[in-house]
Amino acid sequence: MLKNDLLLRAARGEETERTPVWLMRQAGRILPEYRALRARLSGFKELVETPDLAAEVTIQPVDALDVDAAIIFSDILVVPEAMGLTYEMIEARGPLFPETIKSAQDVARMRVADPEEHLGYVLEAIRVTKRALNGRVPLIGFAGAPWTILAYMVEGHGSKTFSKARRLLYTDPALAHELLRKITATTIAYLQAQVAAGANLIQVFDSWAGILPPDHYREFSSRYIAEICNALPDVPVTVFAKGAYFAVPEFATFNCRTIGLDWNEDPRAVRAAIGNEKTLQGNLDPCALYGSREQVQQATIDMLRRFGPHRHIANLGHGVYPDTDADNVRVFIDTVKEFSPMARQG
Ligand code: CP3
Q: Residue 87 in 3-state DSSP?
């Protein structure tokens, strides 16, 4: 059914003729066609909430960059909104929650969302995208990890420290768990619905994993990610927990196929630590794409060598920065396509 299933075969651990490649945040401001469409709209949320438009920008990088996967255009913050906490996306600043979670009553007011009722626009965007893609490449669905979602719900906006969110883990751990359980239940139903709508692979983003100490990470984050993985037995899952190098051996025991690495992590050390049972995804420093064409090629080849030819999905170590030259993104992608088949010949 899929004309290009490299991503899924690599995730399952099958040998592939070359390394598949896509980029986190590939649909977005790096593409002039995204900026043009976005400029005609009232804002980010209009794009996210209009399935035909979300599908259009999901497919833009498949056309413009020839990546091996599409990722549904949405945001992790649609989940708190579905639970009862609306977000705003402030131009050039980022997300803002006018109301935040401060008390037990606030947590009690949050609902476990029904995917069709509260997130139907994302599911419809997935269905429209699948029809339009017509099997060209797999479609990735996603959600935030419960800890990262809690962090935004409590803090209300991005932060270097998320100290309000981390404070809650010390002052009222029971309340934190109550909220995490509701987020987890919402996320499981939402991701199962994404799969039913046509998502071929699911990625869980724990963007704020790296700010927790390891004991808190196990207590307040990874166990909920494990629950999510267990609830999605029929689809490959990727766990990407930025900064949580200490948790990678634990992820290696989860019911997931792929572990995403950020650019601080050493693929060789991870491979040596966890063995060959998981596929690894990543991990070029997004800033490497600010170099010259030759530097981008060399950095990409070095990255491919560190991972080796099998059980690797090429990507950056985090989302591509919006001011990256799209031509250098193409150099990254083309280098993976040209070099990785050669690397298989020894
Ligand atoms: O191409 C893709 O990867 C799919 C789309 C996608 C978006 N957000 C679109 C977006 C995905 C997978 C996300 C996930 C997301 N959103 C994460 C997890 C990944 C990560 O980066 O760690 C997080 C933490 C968010 C929350 C969020 N959304 C922030 C902090 C911001 C502001 C920063 C920024 O890049 O502007 C957003 C906004 C956002 N989400 C944009 C896009 C394309 C920019 C909005 C615009 O077009 O103006």
A: coil
309 pLDDT more than 70: yes
Whether residue 298 is contained in a domain is answered as no
Domain that holds residue 316: 6-287+309-323
- Asked, for residue 30, whether it belongs to a domain, the answer is yes
Hey, whose CA ends up nearest to atom 40 of ligand 1? 75
Query: CA torsion, points 221, 226, 231, 233, in degrees to nearest 10?
Result: 150
Domain count, the chain: 1
Number of the ligand 1 atom closest to the C-alpha atom of 319: 21
Give me the CATH number covering residue 45: 3.20.20.210
Q: How far apart are CA 25 and CA 132, in angstroms?
A: 20
Q: Kindly list the catalytic residues.
A: 25, 29, 38, 75, 152
Asked if the structure places residue 296 within a domain, the reply is no
240 phi/psi in degrees, rounded to 5: -120, 105
Give the dihedral sign, CA 44/28/123/225.
Answer: negative
Q: Is 121 flagged in the annotation as binding?
A: no
Q: CA nearest 146: which of 208, 230, 221, 74?
A: 221
pTM, two decimals, is 0.97
Model pLDDT, residue 277: 97
Complex ipTM more than 0.90, yes or no: yes
Q: Give mean pLDDT, residues 252-275.
A: 98
Pocket of ligand 1 (CB under 6 A): 24-29, 38, 44, 71, 73, 75-77, 89, 94-95, 142, 158, 205, 207, 319
In this structure, the number of other CB atoms found within 10 A of the CB of residue 134 comes to: 9
DSSP class of 93? T
Distance 38 CA to ligand 1 centre (A): 14
- Asked if residue 131 is part of any domain, the answer here is yes
Query: Cβ–Cβ contacts within 10 Å for residue 103, how many?
Result: 10
Residue 275 is assigned to a ligand binding site? no
Strands (E) located in the chain:
70-71, 88-90, 94-96, 139-144, 201-206, 237-241, 258-260, 279-284, 312-316
